[in-house]
């Protein structure tokens, strides 16, 4: 359930002002939870706000469509930016502060620094979207510096991204606790994503093949199947039968890693990425 709003929402655009506001709260003994977003908010984002509100005295969200994590053929220019709607949703949810920085301040003229988090960023999403995780890690580090919160909240739908952020935070000794929250789905099982708005009604029906294939994997593993190749082939057969879904990968990895699990002999995460029409979607499930 959404938190009852008890305070007005303050929108801050400047880096220095944002940092000062967070530190002022902490100096008063209040804990601060941070929810980084690219806007186009849905119930999944708002569940992160709820999680932050449950654990922290104050909640800060950011809205910034980060150009460095989009490839040259990706949807940066058309990515939805309903700012006023997003602010109203955050206000209704009881968020305290929203950081809406300008790209020119986040990436000033001559900017040339990026973060490479190593092997965790290489396979799967890293291979499918070259440079993506360097852009993610860089902007998250910058946001953590702009919003020096006590805890930061991310959704598990972006499984590999959560590993990248946790690796970066650990490697750089960042004084922030990275929390990962469950995937939120529509009633039919489709994982919530800002990109779902791109899907036509027929494409949306076909997109359900992703979550259906993950449920199939859960079922056959629960019945005793331990060969990851068999699980993958069954998933791909289900998706192929639906039609109109171009699979990029099905990854069966040891949970908490990006390392393939040939045999399912412990907890695993199964992740899938595919295109439905022109829309790229990802989903995953944790098993065991």
Briefly summarize what is shown.
This protein is an alpha/beta fold. The protein is 38% helix and 19% strand.
Description of the structure:
The chain has 288 residues and is of the alpha/beta class. It has 2 domains: 172 residues, HUPs (Rossmann fold); 90 residues, Pantoate-beta-alanine ligase, C-terminal domain (Pantoate--beta-alanine Ligase, Chain: A,domain 2), CATH 3.30.1300. Helices cover 38% and strands 19% of the residues. Helix 8 runs antiparallel to helix 9. The two termini are 28 Å apart.
List its traits.
288 residues; alpha/beta; Rossmann fold; Pantoate--beta-alanine Ligase, Chain: A,domain 2; six-stranded parallel sheet; three-stranded antiparallel sheet; 9 helices; 19% strand
